[in-house]
Amino acid sequence: MTEAEFIAALRRLPLHPAARGLNDDTALLDAGPLVVTTDTLVEGVHFLPTDPPQDVAWKLVATNLSDLAAKGAVPEGILLNYPLGDDAWDRTFLEGLADILTAHDTRLIGGDTVTLPPGAPRILTVTAFGSDAAAPARAGAKPGDALYVTGKIGDAGAGLAIALGKSGPAELLAAYRRPQPRLADGRRLARQVHAMMDVSDGLLIDATRMAHASGLAVAIDLAAVPLSDAYRAYSGDRVAAATAGDDYQLLFAAPEDFATDATRIGAFLTGSGLVLHDAGTPVPLPPSLGYEHRA
Amino acid sequence: MTEAEFIAALRRLPLHPAARGLNDDTALLDAGPLVVTTDTLVEGVHFLPTDPPQDVAWKLVATNLSDLAAKGAVPEGILLNYPLGDDAWDRTFLEGLADILTAHDTRLIGGDTVTLPPGAPRILTVTAFGSDAAAPARAGAKPGDALYVTGKIGDAGAGLAIALGKSGPAELLAAYRRPQPRLADGRRLARQVHAMMDVSDGLLIDATRMAHASGLAVAIDLAAVPLSDAYRAYSGDRVAAATAGDDYQLLFAAPEDFATDATRIGAFLTGSGLVLHDAGTPVPLPPSLGYEHRA
Lengths: 295, 295
Prior knowledge:
Chains A, B: Its EC number is 2.7.4.16. Chains A, B: GO terms for molecular function: ATP binding; magnesium ion binding; thiamine-phosphate kinase activity. Chains A, B: Mg(2+) 1 binds at residues 38-39, 112. Chains A, B: Mg(2+) 3 binds at residues 25, 67, 198. Chains A, B: Catalyzes the ATP-dependent phosphorylation of thiamine-monophosphate (TMP) to form thiamine-pyrophosphate (TPP), the active form of vitamin B1. Two copies of one chain form a homodimer. The first copy, chain A, is α+β, with helices and mostly antiparallel strands. Chain A folds into two domains: 3-131, CATH 3.30.1330.10; 138-282, Phosphoribosyl-aminoimidazole Synthetase, Chain A, domain 2 (Alpha-Beta Complex). The first copy, chain A, contains nine helices and twelve strands. In chain A, the strands form two sheets. A seven-stranded mixed sheet of chain A has the order 7-9-6-10-8-11-12, with helices on both faces. In chain A, a hairpin with a 2-residue loop joins strand 11 and strand 12. In chain A, helix 2 runs parallel beside helix 3 (87-103) and helix 4 (155-163) packs across helix 5. The radius of gyration of chain A is 20 Å and the shape is globular. The model of chain A has no long low-confidence stretch (mean pLDDT 95). At the A-B interface, strand 1, strand 2, helix 2, strand 3 and strand 4 of A face strand 1, strand 2, strand 3, strand 4 and strand 5 of B. Strand 1 (27-29) of chain A pairs antiparallel with strand 2 of chain B, so a sheet runs across the interface.
């Protein structure tokens, strides 16, 4: 698509009033204090060249909305920095973009389009803005707090293996390609919990980061890590589940007696680092806790 | 540099309080209504692989600050989406980033770092936030308004030719590599002018866009286009100056008797399109008015 065609297509998406109809050089955003987050996905690094473009669009926006969810924010809108490529890819990407914007009542604020040199991998950036956020930090866990996680863990990691050629159910593949940002959970939890973040690099590494930011240690019960029925049938490997990334669940610290439908999987202790056990039996730490060097 | 080293280096830059010390997943920005703009630069498209990395950093931020200048905004801060590459390039890039942030009292709010597949061209994105903006639109020119431009036009176009191997003075090369966003001019002008934008793609194409957005025609006097002494000595070609991009001057519409040290170069008329003359003598339009298809 040409730039003009692409922008015309963007104008048919839900536009934020700040976008001024995509007719100006800047957007004017007046939505009170804002939560701001930005993520860049690189073809061949964060997504596969064979991933369907509509799912790349979904995931690009979903990863950003997941960061807003962890702050309890209402999605205000996004900026898109997009490399125009072949026509079919661009058109299908726009379909996925429309899907996720509509699914999460998020609007386009603006962006930039560029042309890449021939053969260059696609690099896509989305910047997301959220309003009305309680914005709990990573660093707020207190000694004695329990560690909780929403939803199920490990589906996306299995889905990545399936995307790479392993056989497995469509449900797990969908968890990898179309993660669901936990915006409603985030809204409900943000004003009550002590610390919260999303699980993007792996449950163990992300929990360790929360503990580190809070100046504490964390003990996690592998047996408590919530697995889906599909994942149990696929492999049921709890260490793999807890170290795979892309879950986009919410991980939070709250008192032991906190009333929640999230799963309690561990506890914060004075000290530092991570202790792993399986219903009380100590478990050695796996060589990798998640995507530690992921840039 | 590793991601950890790069982020440690970013922490030594002027940080916005919203950045929370770059220790969280999101920034929290509470600066009133915001002007938001984003620009992506692609190696081999928007900058040359041989351009010094510190100048790439400067230009990446400067192009965004120029958009803020055209709205009369005070720079609040930036997000940086950065592909980690070789050590020397990263370190030198950071020096240029420190230069421009310091020069324009702009602070880092956050961003994202990624790793590229081997051989991929660098793609860099900056998103800039400005506050307290009068934010004149492109579309506000009135019939009878004069067209004005700040500074000199054409230096950066000559500088690009010099960067590509032509001989010429360092002053023109610097105009291409280290454009100066007209933030002070923008602050002064924004509350008084009828329409304003920056000149990024070429004086003629950008003036035509302002006229189009305003539902008017524009007549430009080539003889009035302000040239620097260095450009006059280099070539003095007025059509080349008026169709080269990267000037990052401010172009604005205001009444005929508007008191300004900017140069009056034309007038808005009822109708549509562009009329070019040389001190009254009609001049045919050049085949290209600027980077028309620049994405």
